[in-house]
Amino acid sequence: MSFDRMPENANRQAAEWLARLHADDRTPDDEAAFRAWRNANPHHADAFERASTIWESVGGLGPLPATSPPQMSRRAVLAGAAAVVAAGGMVFGWQEAIAGVYRTNVGEQRRLLLEDGTRVMLDTATRFRFHPETDARILSLSAGRINLNVAKDARPFVIEAGAQRASLPAGRVDIRRDGESVAFTAIEGTPRILRDGTALALAPGHRMMMTAGHAERVDRPDLRDVIAWQDGRLAFRDETLSQAVAEMNRYTNRPLIVADPRVGGLRLSGMYRVGDPEAFARSIAILLPVRVQADANAVRIFPTA
Fold first, then answer.
1. Which of 26, 92, 253, 286 has a 20 to 30 A CA-CA distance from 106?
2. Are 81 and 105 in contact (CB under 8 A)?
3. CATH domain 99-225 topology
């Protein structure tokens, strides 16, 4: 493989070198060429270090050892590199990071490592901006949902979501924003929610739901349900079919449609995989008195009678 013909993009080249050095046909010439590339520009070493960190963070092979690297098939290497890119990897994530903006499309989920060491997972149709200032780290969530594992730092980590603000020195939180409605869930650590001029501590395991800066309620959900989306699933606990359909539709451009209001109020519980509306509809048709009509554009749900 010749890297001389690649565009001058240190992050992209680092990703290619990472995959190449883990391949089963790695040669001494590859190693020599890699060392020459790394030493040619100080940005190359930094890019490769970050590439290795992201590879490890999304379940790759871990950092490269100094000698005797693990050998893998080319298929496994390419799968690992694809996983890094799909999970918010080096090329797309870092290009967006030039402006500090990260996003996902409908049906896409992504993992990112921010420059302060904070780990982020983005849900479908999510957008945020990250501003690492000298006195504070500020993350502004415009839409969607994120799970943050905030790295320890002398600077506070401030989360903005419309009129809602929270701070967390370190720990893990789940934040969802739908318009001006925001839900903060403390998983590890104690975020401080800034509301009506005061800071309220949110204990681990608790969730605060707010609209336009005013707390609507605080509850204690099952955290397994809260974070199920990170495994590509949604949990419904005695919710209406209309509510479940609205949630499932966040992950697809082929929507589920409740074609008759008589079935919208039916209730269901369970854990369902996102991204396949027809499979969801056919599974609930086994449990509820509904029938399914699917075409290329939509999946419609009707009553059986």
1. 286
2. no
3. Jelly Rolls (2.60.120)
Helix (H) or strand (E) holding 96: helix 90-97
In CATH, the number for domain 232-303 is: 3.55.50.30
Going by pLDDT thresholds of 50, 70 and 90, the confidence category of residue 54 is low
Residue ranges of the domains in the chain? Answer: 10-90, 99-225, 232-303
DSSP category for residue 67? S
User: Taken in order 180, 183, 188, 189, is the CA torsion positive or negative?
Assistant: positive
What are the tens digits of pLDDT across the range 150-171? 999 989 999 999 888 999 989 9
Helix (H) or strand (E) holding 21: helix 10-21
Here the tokens at position 177 are 């924003």
Q: Say if residues 128 and 158 touch (Cβ distance below 8 Å).
A: no
Decide if 287 contacts 280 (C-beta within 8 A).
no
Closest CA to 175 of 208, 153, 220, 203: 208
Q: How many CB atoms lie within 10 A of CB 18?
A: 24
Q: Encoding tokens for residue 94? A: 């870092």
pTM score: 0.68
